[in-house]
Please model this.
Amino acid sequence: MLAFAARRLLVSLGLVWVVASLVFLVIHLIPGDPAELLLSQGGIAPDPAAVEELRERLGLNLPLWTQYVTYMTGLLRGDFGLSLQDEHPIGEEIALRLPRTLELVGAAGVISLIVGVPLGVAAALRAGGTLDRVLSACAGLALSIPVFVVGTLAVLVLAQELRLVSAGGYVPFARDPGRHLALLLMPACTIVVGLGAVVFRVMRSSVLEVLERDHVRAAQARGAAPGAIIRRHVVRNALTPVVTVVALHLGSLLGGTVLVEFVFNWPGLSGYLVRSVEARDYPEVMGIVLVISSLFVLLNFLVDLLYAVIDPRVRHG
Model:
């Protein structure tokens, strides 16, 4: 197990380095001079001397390879550089906003598993029945509704019309835990509508496939209790594709919760990314994209380890 984890860790670290290099190169290949864009106001061309002075101060006049070495050395120290807008440390802003996005995505993932897995099992065990048809229809409907529509309807109905919950906002957990969780519930459940439907459909298909395997039929032939067969032989084996799907969706949600955070005024990392792109703040964009990409790689590393726990054959493959 340790050898398997070490191999996967080395691969993950290599991927992070490749991602960091690609992000650096892509950002520097974008047309436009950041210094000139920062000094331009109202469409008036800035003073060339001021542009050159700012380029020198930001290190933009250095050769590309020198900037690359400086950038990678800073990353090894955990230094993402300074914002071009106000020279605020980028790492501090990411450290402030990242836990909020992780909390939102993590809560949505947990709720999706709690809801989707049991319903998927129930539908598969009654395949073709009324319950299966109803749940499958609801899942199809949930997948067809865009997340911003779900969020807007939740705010309109639950917050404004029924006044059951707040329309949005953010309160630190340390200040008011109850209020914090109440504000987290709506945006998390908005994501769950689509993600939970995906978990349901994958779990249902996986359970139906596992039920046809020889070891399950052998357990049935031995007269094992149906509940024990479902718990020991079906659900555990059926979870492997579900873990994959959830991990991929959670990885994409790390940078894709922009609309949810906007609708519910949740100050996470996605909104910070949009603001940085609009301001052409390249160091901020590089830092945020690198963090999101690294988390995606880390998530896949953890999924590989979870595979090895669920199915011991994986670590010997």
